[in-house]
Amino acid sequence: MEENELAQKIREIISSKNKTELDEFLDHSEPIDFAQQVAELEDDEIMDLLALLDENQLASLMEESEDKERIRIAHMLDNKRLLVAFGYMQKDDIVDMLGDFPIGRRKEIVNLMKSDDRRIITTLLNYPEDSAAGIMTTQYIALNENLSVHDGLDKIRDIGPRTEVIETIYVINDKRELTGVCDLRDLLNASRDNRIKDIMDDHVISVLPETDQEVVARLVSRYDLESIPVVTKNNQIFGIITVDDVIDVIVEEYDEDMLQMAGVSKEESIDSSLKDSVRMRLPWLFINLATAFLASFTVKIFEGTISKVVALSAVMTIVSGMGGNAGTQTMSILVRELAQNKVDLKESIRAFFKEIGLGVVDGAATGLLTGVIVAMVYGNPFLGVIVFLAMIGNLVVAGVFGFLVPVILDKLHADPAVSSSIFVTTATDVLGFFIFLGLASIFIKYLI
Amino acid sequence: MEENELAQKIREIISSKNKTELDEFLDHSEPIDFAQQVAELEDDEIMDLLALLDENQLASLMEESEDKERIRIAHMLDNKRLLVAFGYMQKDDIVDMLGDFPIGRRKEIVNLMKSDDRRIITTLLNYPEDSAAGIMTTQYIALNENLSVHDGLDKIRDIGPRTEVIETIYVINDKRELTGVCDLRDLLNASRDNRIKDIMDDHVISVLPETDQEVVARLVSRYDLESIPVVTKNNQIFGIITVDDVIDVIVEEYDEDMLQMAGVSKEESIDSSLKDSVRMRLPWLFINLATAFLASFTVKIFEGTISKVVALSAVMTIVSGMGGNAGTQTMSILVRELAQNKVDLKESIRAFFKEIGLGVVDGAATGLLTGVIVAMVYGNPFLGVIVFLAMIGNLVVAGVFGFLVPVILDKLHADPAVSSSIFVTTATDVLGFFIFLGLASIFIKYLI
After folding, report:
1. Out of B284, B292, B331, whose CB is closest to A318?
2. Which residues of B touch A205 (CB under 8 A)?
3. Strands annotated E in B109-262
C-alpha cells in the first residue's frame, strides 16, 4: 500500500470507529509503518484512535513511535491505561518514555507500579539514555549452568515467547554470575542429559551498565554478535542488548556526527520552530564568526600591499579556499581511521610525511593551472608564480593541520569527527592568506 | 590480552612452529582479533603461519580479514588448499575474494570447483558486490509449508548447525516460492502435528537480488529484522541477508558518505601510497578549483571598488565564510531528512520559508556584531551597515541554497549527502561576494 493510501485508510477507520476493521488492518501492516502514519494525525483523530486500540496495540504503537510522538500519545492517556499498556512494553522503552515525562507524572506512574517493576524501572532511570543500561532489555534467557540440556530446552520453550532473543542463551551459576554462553543450535544438537555447563562457551564478551552505547555498538558490530549481555561489576547479569537496538545506535550516532560536524544539534529537525532553530544554530555561527575575524585580520595586515596590487584580493580567495578543501580531505581520512582505531605510531609518522608530500604534489598541480590562468588574466607572470608557490605552501598547511588536528583532538578525548573541521579551516584560511599576501609583499616590486 | 601481547604471542607461536599452542591460542581468541594481528605480520611470517593452520582455521582467518589481506593470503596458497578452505567459508565471502582475484586465477579456481558450487559461485559473480545478491548467504533454512511442526523441528536440528540464522525460518511451497516466515519460538510452542502452513506469517518483507545494499539495510533496520530473504522475480528464495552483514553495510555506507562528502575515495586509507592518494584526491581539487575561480572572478568584477576602499577585501571574506557555514547547517538537516524519507511537500514549503526567516534572524544577529566591530576597527559606520545588510542577504542565500540543492539533487536521483556541499558553498561564496561588494559599489560615496 502506498503511504497516501495508508493514511487515507487509517483516517477512514478512525472516523467510522470500526474496531474490527482496525484489527484487520493492524494484523496486515507493520507496526512502524502504522506508527509513522499516526504521527501525521491531528490530536483529535489520535484521541479517537486511542479509544479503539487494545492495550497491546497501544503498547506496540508507543514502542514504534518517536520520542516526541510517544509523549503526545501519553498526554492523552490516563495513568491507569498507560500502566496496562506498559505491561506489554519492553522495560527500556518504558524508561525512555518516563525519562521524557514531567517529573511529577513520572513519580505518580512509578508509584502505581507493582513493586518488582518499580524496582527495575527506578534502577534503570538512574542510567543515562545512551548507556548500556539505557538501551538494554531485561527480557532475556539465562539458564543455570547445572541444568540438563533437556530441562534447559523445556525452559526455553517456556520463556522463549517473552524474550527478545532465543538464539543466544546466557548461562549463569547459582549466584546469578554470568559464566558462559551457548547457541540454541548447540543445545538442540547436544545429548539431552548433558549439563549446560558441559556444552557452553565460557568466553563471553560483556559490557557494564554504564558503558557508552557507542562502545556497545562497536563490540556487537566487530564480533558479529546477536546480543551482548550487560553485567554488574560483580559479574551478575543485568540485561541484554539486542542487535536491532545496536543498529538504531549506529544510525543515531551517524546522524549525530554528520550534524554536529556542520554545527547542528541532533535535536533539530525540519519541523523545528524558527525560535528553536535560531537557539540551536546561532551559537555555532558565532564561534565561526570568531575564526572568520581571525582570517579577516590577517588580510587587514596586508591592506597596504593590496592597495598597490588590487588583483591580490580576488586571487587570495582561491588560495585559501583550495587549502580548506585539501585540509578537509586529509582530515576525513584521519577521522575515519581514528574511529576504527587503526592508527599506529610507526605507520602514522610515515603517513604524516606522505600528507606533506601530497600537499606539495597537489599544490603544484592545482597551483600551476591557477598560476597560468592568473598570469594570463592579469597579464602578470610574477603574480602567477606567487600563486603557484602560495598554493603549494597552503596545501602543505592543509596536510599538516588536516593530519594533526584530528590526532590531537583524539588524544585529548574530544570527538575528532565533530570539532576538527573548524580548526583545520581556520588554519588554511589564516595561513593561506598569510602565505599568499606575505609572498606578494616581499616581491611587491615585481607585481606593480 | 593487550594488542601488543597478542602480537608478541602470535610471533612466538610462529617462530616455535608449535601447532598445539596455536590451536590452544585460537580456541581462546576471537577470529577478528586474530585476523587483525595477522594483517600486521610480514609475508614470511604469514607463510610460516599458514603452514600451521588447519583448513577451517584458514577459512576463518580469510573470512575475518580485510579484502587486501585476503588477497595477500590467497597469493601464498596453491589452488588446491584454497579450494579446501573455501569449503568452510560462506559463499558471499568466496565470491568477494574471487572478485578481487586476477581473472586468470579466478577462472582456474572456479573450474576446479564441484559443479554445484561452481553454478552458485558463477551466478553470484554476476551481481555487483553492493547488491543484495552480493552480500547474501546461501546457507539458510527454508521449510516446505506442508511439513508438520514435528518434522520441521527435526530438520532444523539437522540443518541448523550449517546455517547462519535459526531464529527466523522461511517457508516455501513445492515450487520453492517463498510463501511465509515463522519464528522458531512459534514452532517450539506449536502443537507437533500442526502443519507449518498453519502457524506461519504469510506477510514477508523480501528484496530482489539486484536491490542496492543500502535499501536492504534500511528495510532490516526499519523493521528490526534478524534476516531478510532475497527472492528471484518469480518469488523463489535465492538466499538470505543476515543482520550482522547489514551492520557492516551501514558502517560502510556511513564511511563512504563521510569521505565522499569531503572529496575522498572510500578506497583510500592512511597507508595508501602517495601516487594513489594523488590520483584519488586531485580530481576533486580541480573541480573545487573551478568553483574557486567563479568566486574569484566575482571579486575581480569589483576591483575598481576595492581599489577605492581596500578594507573591503578583508571584510568580504567574513561575509562569504559565514554564508558557507550557515548553508552547511541547513544542508545537513535536509540531507538527513531526505535520507529518512521524511520530507513531505506541505511540511517542506513551511520549512523552506522558515529557513529564509532563519537567514534573516541569524544574519541580523551575526551581522550586527560584525557590523559594530567593523565600524569601530575601520572608523566607518557605513561600512558596518553594509556588512550588516550583506550578512543578512548571504545567510538568506545560504538558507535558500542549503534547502533547495539537496532537494533538487534528490529529485535527480543523485546522492545529496555527497554532492550538495560544493553547490551550496559555491552559491554562498559567489553571491556572498556579489552582495557585499555590490552594496559597497552602490554606496561607494559613503565609504570613501
Report:
1. B292
2. 30
3. 142-144, 168-172, 178-183, 227-231, 237-242
- Which chain B residues are within 8 Å of A285, Cβ to Cβ? 322, 325-326, 329, 362, 365-366
CATH number for the domain harbouring residue A195? 3.10.580.10
Domain of A434: which CATH number? 1.10.357.20
State the Cα–Cα distance between residues A126 and A103, nearest whole angstrom: 14
Of B126, B150, B172, which one is at a domain's C-terminal end? B126
Q: Crossing angle, helix B67-75 and helix B55-64, to 10 degrees?
A: 150
A188/B157 CB distance under 8 A:
yes
For chain B, report the end-to-end CA distance as a whole number of angstroms: 72
Distance from the Cα of B82 to chain A's closest Cα (Å) equals: 24
Q: Are A168 and A143 in contact (CB under 8 A)?
A: no
Q: How far is the alpha carbon of B60 from chain A, nearest alpha carbon, in Å?
A: 13
User: Are A216 and A249 contacting, i.e. CB atoms less than 8 angstroms apart?
Assistant: yes
| Per-residue pLDDT tens over the stretch A161-194 | 778 777 899 999 999 999 999 988 888 888 888 9
Q: Among A139-153, B157-171, B348-362, B377-391, which stretch is predicted with the lowest mean pLDDT?
A: B157-171
Task: Please give the pLDDT value at position A1.
Answer: 52
Q: Give φ, ψ of B145 to 5 degrees.
A: -60, -20
User: Are B322 and A289 within 8 A, CB to CB?
Assistant: yes
Q: Are B92 and B160 contained in the same domain? A: no
Within a domain: residue A263? Answer: no
Question: Is the same domain home to B112 and B148?
Answer: no
* Statement to judge: residues B342 and B233 lie in one domain: no
| Chain B contact for A278 (CB, 8 A cutoff) | yes
* pLDDT score for B3: 64
A243-292 tens-digit pLDDT:
989 998 988 888 888 888 888 887 888 888 899 999 999 999 999 999 99
In this predicted structure, the answer to whether residue B232 has a pLDDT above a threshold of 90 is yes
Q: Is the pLDDT at B303 greater than 80, yes or no?
A: yes
Nearest chain A Cα to B338, which residue? A270
Name the minimum distance, in Å, from the CA of A69 to any CA of chain B.
Answer: 15
Residues B111 and B167 in one domain: no
In one-letter notation, the amino acid at residue A127 is: Y
Closest CA to B429 of B306, B290, B294: B294
- The answer to whether residue B228 is domain-embedded is yes
For A330, the domain range is 274-447
Instruction: Please tell me the distance in Å from A104's CA to the nearest CA on chain B.
Output: 33
Let me know how many helices (H) and strands (E) chain A has, helices first: 23, 5
Contact A139, A90 (CB under 8 A): yes
* Higher per-residue confidence, A414 vs B354: B354
Domain's final residue, options B126, B159, B190: B126
Q: Are A108 and A137 in contact (CB under 8 A)?
A: no
In a domain, A137, yes or no: no
Contact B213, A216 (CB under 8 A): no
The C-alpha torsion from B159 through B160 and B163 to B169, rounded to 10°, is: 100
- Number of domains, chain A: 3
Tell me the C-alpha distance between B71 and B68, whole Å. Answer: 5
Q: Are both B38 and B89 inside the same structural domain? A: yes
For the domain that residue B65 is a member of, what is the CATH number? 1.25.60.10
Q: Does residue B205 sit in the same domain as residue B166?
A: yes
What distance lies between CA B251 and its chain's CA centroid? Answer: 6
How far is residue B395's CA from residue B402's CA, in Å, rounded to a whole number? 10
Q: Does B274 sit within 8 Å of A361, measured CB to CB?
A: yes
